[in-house]
Design a protein that fits this description.
5-stranded antiparallel beta sheet; two-stranded antiparallel sheet; single chain; alpha+beta; 3 helices; 32% strand
C-alpha cells in the first residue's frame, strides 16, 4: 500500500507502567473519552484520527495468536512475547496541520493526571500502526482514517 505523503503521525509516549489489566483498561477508557471530546468540540480537530492501545508485551518478537476452544464465537486474541508491565500506546494521525496541536492537548491532559509524557513524529504511519497492531491486546480508534476503505491496517 502506498502511503500518502500528506499524512502526519505523532506518537504520544508515556513512561508510566500499570500493575493490572483492570487499572490500565480504566485509564484507556478515560483517555479515549477525553480524546473523543476534544475531537468533537474543537473545529480544528475534525480531521484528526487516533488510536490508543494497551500492551504488556515487549515489542521485539511479539506476535498475535488466537486461542480456539472449539466453542462458538470468535477465538480469543492473545499477544505472545516477553511480558513486561502494562503500558499505553497513543498515535495521532492527520491529513491536516493540527496533529501536533492535538497531540499537545493530549499531553496536557495526561500531565494534569500525573503521567510523564513526550511526543515524537513518526515517518511512516503504516510502520507505527503495524507496530501497535502486533503488540497491543486492547485498542480503541477514533476518526475517519480507520473507517476508510484505503485503510486495511487494522483488519
Amino acid at each position: 500500500m502506498q502511503e500518502n505523503k500528506n499524512i502526519i503521525c505523532y506518537s504520544v509516549n508515556t513512561t508510566d507502567k500499570f500493575n493490572s489489566k483492570e487499572e490500565i483498561e480504566k485509564k484507556l477508557k478515560n483517555i479515549y473519552q477525553a480524546m473523543l471530546r476534544r475531537k468533537h468540540t474543537d473545529e480544528r480537530f475534525r480531521d484528526i484520527s487516533f488510536i490508543v492501545g494497551t500492551s504488556e508485551t515487549k515489542s521485539s518478537g511479539a506476535y498475535i495468536s488466537y486461542n480456539r476452544t472449539g466453542k462458538r464465537g470468535r477465538p480469543k486474541r492473545v499477544v505472545v512475547g516477553e511480558k513486561i508491565p502494562w503500558h499505553l500506546h497513543i498515535y495521532v494521525i492527520s491529513i491536516g496541520e493540527y496533529a501536533s496541536t492535538f497531540s499537545e492537548e493530549i499531553i496536557k491532559y495526561l500531565k494534569k493526571r500525573g503521567f510523564e509524557t513526550s511526543k515524537n513524529k513518526n515517518d511512516s504511519v503504516n510502520n507505527a500502526l503495524n507496530y501497535l497492531e502486533r503488540q497491543s491486546l486492547y485498542k480503541r480508534t477514533g476518526g475517519d482514517y480507520f473507517k476508510s476503505k484505503n485503510s486495511n491496517l487494522l483488519k
